[in-house]
Structure to design on (189 residues):
């Protein structure tokens, strides 16, 4: 049985590191893993999507609408943008951070209100956390990705040690302690 995880966010937020770490974890657990990076405007500010699929045998890295077991979102509007990919019974893990897209920056649109509530009203199981505050507590706003991976780890049958081994294999040594702290804050929140 193949499981599907989408990691969505805005360019420059670290979604590629998150997908790499998740891929390493799943490989260490002896799954067949396919990771596909689907960039929109991946320069800072544009939408970035990464697909992570795993199971006994995975033939394609692409996730179809209505089949994602998890959507990990670095930003509320990005979660709403990709919600149609969530399967019935799937879970959205979202940072409550708001990053204005270009139409909001230029004044052509307003940032939508009550996004998390609207996703819940539509039937989505949403786990919303203030990942930015936790990342800052760990020592860097750039650690939102590890806060979200820590949160995801609560829903996975993998040991803390397996997650730490994956983290250590993907993060430069000088940032390991900061990222471990961010992961722990997300996991324990």
């Amino acid at each position: 049985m193949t499981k599907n995880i989408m990691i969505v966010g805005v360019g420059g937020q670290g979604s590629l590191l998150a997908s790499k770490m998740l891929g390493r974890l799943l490989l260490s657990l002896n799954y067949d893993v396919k990771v596909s990076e689907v960039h929109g405007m991946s320069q800072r500010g544009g939408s970035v999507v990464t697909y992570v699929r795993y199971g006994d045998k995975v033939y394609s890295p692409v996730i179809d609408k209505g089949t994602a077991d998890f959507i990990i979102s670095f930003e509320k509007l990005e979660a709403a943008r990709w919600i149609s990919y969530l399967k019935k019974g799937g879970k959205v893990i979202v940072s409550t951070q708001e990053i204005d897209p270009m139409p909001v920056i230029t004044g052509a649109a307003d940032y939508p209100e009550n996004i998390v509530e609207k996703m819940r009203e539509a039937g989505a199981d949403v786990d919303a956390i203030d990942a930015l505050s936790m990342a800052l507590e760990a020592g860097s706003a750039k650690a939102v990705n590890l806060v979200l991976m820590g949160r995801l780890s609560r829903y996975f049958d993998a040991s803390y040690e397996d997650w730490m081994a994956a983290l250590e294999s993907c993060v430069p040594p000088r940032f390991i302690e900061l990222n471990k702290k961010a992961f722990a804050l997300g996991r324990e929140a």
